[in-house]
Amino acid sequence: MTRKSSLWPKCLMVVSIFALFIGVGWSADEHDQSDINKRIENSAKVLDEIMATPDKAIPDKVMRDAKCIAVIPSMVKIAIGFGGNHGKGVATCRTERGTWSAPAPITITGGSWGLQLGGQAVDLVMVVTNQSGMDHLLSSKFKLGADASAAAGPVGRDAAADTDIKMRAEVLTYSRARGLFAGIDLSGAAITQDKDETRLLYGKFEPFGEILNGKIEPTASSRPFLSAVRKYSAQSKETSEYYGPSAGTSPAK
Question: Which residues lie closer than 8 Å to 43 by C-beta, 6 or more apart?
Answer without folding.
Answer: 71, 72, 73, 89, 90, 103, 225, 228
